[in-house]
């Protein structure tokens, strides 16, 4: 069993409170940017990257990411596309520095911390329309130094990550709600064309339909409304459920 698996199996024992301390100092060696297959992006991450690089979110998706449908979530998943035999992050420059250091994805900025959204009890898991809270763990690391003491609070402030991250909580709730809705359509054995239409529209609203010159959060809320409108339209057109023969 890996160190990561052990932490997940004993999650409660590895939780860090907002003012708990941990020892770590990043040496900017780039080690955490190599041999990575798991650098997943939310829409705010992609927005910040595109804005930093002066390109559209669609261009950022095409140049640096790959998108696939999650096996369990049934939702479009976006990750930074690793390059070469070393599975290197595409945003890592030749000098070993990050090309978007001050706008890097949340998962990178948090390192070595991990963050999850959970219900009132961890065992509840994520559920739509349920109170959510942010929780932190210290991931196993093999880089950096262990002499510098940080609190979770100071680490978040250092990288401008909100302590009460409204977007991240809404993002978690949204994905769970959408996952449930999309799974229901799959269980009805809807046609491949309708499923593809759903995924395309959800993916566009989550990751493409943004102007980096405008406020992110306002656009995110608007795009959530667009997605809800899509499902409302489907329910109006198929009040008894969608159940054509799959092609």
Describe the fold and architecture.
The protein has two domains: 3-164, no CATH class; 167-237, no CATH class. Helix content is 40%, strand content 15%. It has helices at 3-9, 43-53, 57-64, 106-110, 152-158, 166-187, 192-207, 216-237, and strands at residues 15-16, 21-25, 40-41, 65-69, 76-80, 113-118, 133-138, 145-151. The strands form three sheets. A three-stranded antiparallel beta sheet has the order 1-7-6, with helices on one face. The chain has a three-stranded antiparallel beta sheet with strand order 3-5-4. Strands 2-8 form a two-stranded antiparallel sheet. 19% of the residues are buried.
Helix percent reads: 25-40%
Strand content: 15-25%
Net shape: globular
Radius of gyration: 19 Å
Distance between the termini: 41 Å
Mean pLDDT: 84
Overall tally of domains = 2
């Amino acid at each position: 069993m890996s160190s990561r698996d052990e932490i997940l199996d004993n999650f409660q024992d590895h939780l860090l409170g907002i003012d708990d301390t941990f020892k770590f100092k990043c040496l900017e060696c780039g080690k955490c940017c190599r041999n990575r297959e798991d650098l997943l992006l939310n829409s705010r991450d992609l927005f910040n990257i595109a804005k930093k690089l002066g390109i559209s979110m669609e261009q950022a998706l095409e140049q640096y990411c790959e998108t696939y449908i999650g096996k369990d979530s049934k939702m479009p998943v976006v990750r930074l596309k690793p390059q070469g035999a070393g599975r290197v992050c595409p945003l890592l420059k030749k000098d070993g520095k990050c090309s978007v250091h001050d706008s890097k994805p949340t998962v990178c900025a948090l390192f070595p911390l991990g963050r999850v959204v959970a219900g009132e009890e961890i065992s509840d898991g994520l559920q739509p329309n349920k109170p959510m809270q942010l929780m932190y763990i210290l991931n196993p690391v093999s880089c950096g130094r262990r002499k510098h003491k940080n609190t979770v609070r100071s680490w978040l402030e250092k990288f401008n990550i909100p302590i009460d991250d409204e977007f991240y909580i809404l993002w978690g709730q949204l994905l769970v709600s959408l996952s449930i809705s999309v799974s229901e359509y799959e269980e009805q054995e809807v046609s491949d064309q309708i499923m593809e239409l759903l995924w395309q529209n959800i993916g566009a609203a989550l990751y493409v339909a943004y102007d980096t010159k405008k406020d992110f959060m306002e656009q995110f809320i608007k795009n959530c409304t667009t997605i809800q409108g899509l499902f409302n339209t489907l329910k109006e057109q198929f009040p008894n459920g969608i159940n054509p023969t799959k092609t």
